[in-house]
Amino acid sequence: MADKVIPLADHRYAASVPRIPNLLLPPSGLLGDRLGRALRDLRISVTDRCNFRCSYCMPREVFDKQYSFLPHSSLLSFEEITRLARIFVAHGVRKLRLTGGEPLLRKNLEVLIGMLSDLRTADGQALDLTLTTNASLLTKKARALKDAGLQRVTVSLDALDDATFRRMNDADFPVAEVLEGIAQAQAVGLGPIKVNMVVKRGTNEHEILAMARHFRGTSVVLRFIEYMDVGASNGWRMDEVMPSADVVARIHSEFPLESIEPGASGETAERWRYLDGAGEIGVISSVTQAFCRDCNRARLSTEGKLFLCLFANHGHDLRSLLRGNASDAQIAAAIGLIWQGLDDRYSELRGAFAADASSGQRRVEMHYIGG
Ligand code: SAM
Ligand code: SF4
Ligand code: SF4
C-alpha cells in the first residue's frame, strides 16, 4: 500500500479548540488584552484560493497543481461568518475587512456583504465594511458589491510597468485591467480607494516614483508596504526589504512631503502629505517599525480559525464551536477569553525570534489569513 499522503494544509495551521469558561460574561464591547489593546478590526478570509501567484505571497513553486487548497466543506458558510462577525461586533469590533486569497473568487460574495452590512454596533452604528482585492474581477463586480452595501475597496497593485507587474503576479495579468477595476470602483462610489504596493528591493523599487506620480492628484491613496516575512514559503530575505524611510525619501526628493497625524488609533499606515496639495500617501512599516503596541486586529481564516497576530503559528478553532452547537453566549465568552490572554507582538520581537531560528516554528501563510 502506498504511504498515506497528509495534505500540507492539514498540518500547517495548528489550532486548538477554544475553552468555554463556566461563567458566561456577556460581551461589554470593551474587551482588552494583556497589553490593554482593544479589539476593533476583524479581517475575514473568505477563500484561500487566488488567480495570482505573487511571489511574496503564493510562489508558484509551492502553490502549484499539487497544492491542496481547502475543500468547500471546510469553508465557513456565509451564515457562519455572519454569526461570528455579530459576536465580534458585540465585543467592540467596528471594522470588517474581507480578504483572502482573492475574495472576489468566492461565489456570491455580494450575498455575504449584504448580510454583514446589516450588522450594527451596540450604539447603532453601521460597520466600516471593506475589502482587499487584486482587482482582477473588480470591473465586473464593483456595481454588485456597492449595491450589496460594501463601502470601499483597497486594491493591490505593485507596478505600473506592465512587464514588471505581470512578472510579479506571475499570472500574466495586465496593469490596464487593474486600473480599469479601480476606475469602475470609483465610478460606482466604492471610495475612498486605497492602493497597496508591496515594495521588494531589486524587483519593483524602480516603480515607486511612477506609482506616486500616477496617483498624485487623484482621490486614490497610495500606500507602500514593506515586504514582510509572513508564512514560510516566500523565501523572505531582509536585504529585499525596502525600508519605508527610503521610500519616503525617494518620493520627497521629487515631490516634497510632510508627515501628518494618524487617522485612527491602531491604523497601520504612517501618513504623508504632498506639500503642493496633491493628496497623501501612506507607508506601512511592519518590518522596520513595528506597530504592535496599537494593534487592534484579529483574523479569521477561511475555515474559521482565529489568529490574533499575522505572525502567529497557532489559531483558535472557532468552527469547532459553531459546528459543535455552542450557543452565541458560549462562543462570545470563549473569544473573550482568547483575546484577554493575548500578548502577541511579533513585529516588535522579530529580532529575538530571528535569533531563535532553530525553533523551527511554522507561521501561518498570508493567502490563508489575508494580511
Ligand atoms: N488577494 C487580495 C490582494 O492581493 O489584495 C487580498 C489578499 S492579500 C494576502 C492582502 C494583502 O497582503 C495584499 O495587499 C498583499 O499585497 C499583501 N501581502 C501579501 N504577502 C505579503 C508580504 N509578504 N509582505 C507584505 N504584504 C504582503
Ligand atoms: Fe493572491 Fe493577493 Fe496573495 Fe497576490 S497577494 S497571491 S493577489 S492573495
Ligand atoms: Fe499586530 Fe502581530 Fe502585526 Fe504586531 S506583528 S502589529 S501584534 S499583527
Q: What is the percent of helical residues?
A: 25-40%
Largest sheet entry:
13 strands, mixed
Weakly predicted, low-confidence segments:
1-11, 353-360
Secondary-structure arrangement, i.e. CATH architecture: Alpha-Beta Barrel
Order of helices and strands: HEEHEHEHEHHEHEHEEEEEEHHHH
Radius of gyration: 20 Å
Strand order of the largest sheet: 1-13-12-11-2-3-4-5-6-7-10-9-8
SS-derived structural category = alpha/beta
Mean pLDDT: 88
The count of helical stretches stands at 12
Any idea of the CATH topology?
TIM Barrel
Tell the overall outline: globular
The total domain count is: 1
**Distance N terminus to C terminus?**
41 Å
By DSSP, the count of extended strands is 13
Distinct compounds present: S-adenosylmethionine, iron/sulfur cluster
* Strand residue content: 15-25%
In CATH, the homologous superfamily goes by the name Aldolase class I
Under CATH at level 1, the class stands as: Alpha Beta
